[in-house]
Design goal:
Layout: H1 10-21, E1 28-35, E2 38-46, H2 53-64, E3 72-78, H3 92-104, E4 108-109, E5 113-116, E6 119-122, H4 136-139, H5 142-145, H6 149-156, H7 173-185, H8 199-209, H9 215-223, H10 231-241, H11 244-256, H12 258-277, H13 301-310, H14 319-334, H15 342-354, H16 358-371, H17 376-386, E7 408-409
Parallel strand pairs: 2-7, 3-4, 3-5
Antiparallel strand pairs: 1-2, 1-3, 5-6
Helix pairs in contact: 2-3, 7-10, 9-11, 10-14, 10-15, 11-12, 11-15, 14-15, 15-16, 15-17, 16-17
Amino acid sequence: MTTIIRAAAAHDFLALVPLLAGYRPAHSLVCVAFDGNRTTAVLRHDLPDDERADATVTALLGTLCRIPRVDGIVPVAYGDRRFGSDDPMPSRRVLECLVRRAGDAGFVVRDALTVAPNGWGSLFDDDLPVEGRPLRLIEESAAASAGPTEVAELAAGLVDSAVDLVPIAEPDEVLAGVILVILDGLPASGGTVGPDGDEAVADVVERALGDAVDPLVLVERIAGGRSDGSPEELAWLLALAERPPIRDAMMLQAAFGPVVGELALDSAEDDRTRRDAGRASGGPRQSSTAPPSGLHEEETVDGFLSRLMLGRTTVRPDVERVRAMLDVLGTAIGNAPAGRRTGAICIAAWLAWTLGRGSAAGALVDRALSETPQHTMAGLLHRFLGLGELPEWAFSEPTAGSDPAGRRAA
């Protein structure tokens, strides 16, 4: 269902921007895109200095041009510079650049706003005071508070920055201690027990999880919202995430379902078998599942999985599955020992990216690299996200009933 919120004035619109974005912007250039009178996307970049303004505007317009039916925009600059300084309007340079080039590209610029620590203003306001308009107009706006119940729920879920859109739990001393004991007792990837391990620990985990020791079953339990949050489940999730083939299959399965997860596991097993045998596979890969939609007739399974991983497809992830997986990953990461959660952090970063939460994904990758500088997957994600890539599904038309969360490019 579409929630309709009306903004009668610029300060009312500014009161709504955090609700549209899902967080309280700071040091950001936020661009709200419109299809007629409806918002269709919220894009965010770090607020550039004057020297970087052209490059940032180029990237922003390139993204806007790929979103179907966008015809209007309202850019908002959130910065630390104050009204009353040498520049009468903070961030004027980047806003003027964006307004000019957006107009050249055919977009209607409905307004261009700046929010500073001591006031706010519009580029189109000929009577803008030197000290800006008072922030209390935004703070006291009834546009958000007078909205429907859905608006109140959005306001209650606001976080302080785009980075916080993927929350990592504060560690619980007891839970973290149990997870550490379990991780030390679980078999490592080579089948040997950890340095402080006890084979009995693996038996305890198996009894606690039952058939969910199978990665496919575990991911379906978590993505389906049936996680029990037990130490055994969280520790096993962390342990599996440290095994690259299983890690990649788990994150694809969380986003696209069990068929894709099984294909990814089958592909990894075939690769391992070929390496062990020292020869090429004797024939085409066989899977016990039907091919998923989106697999081209002449395409290999590996090629299909690669396209999903890189976002080079209009096949949309299941947003509710991704959110459920991120919730559990946040608890696992927050309670895991440093250096033994890098794989889980990489899964969370990629899943955040699938939802358009690029800033959160980048922060997670930075965290992974700070703990494990030579981690291969973290390094790949760092380079990939640094290109500013967004998945193709963020620019495709949502199907009826789907959640267009990927349009929030944070």
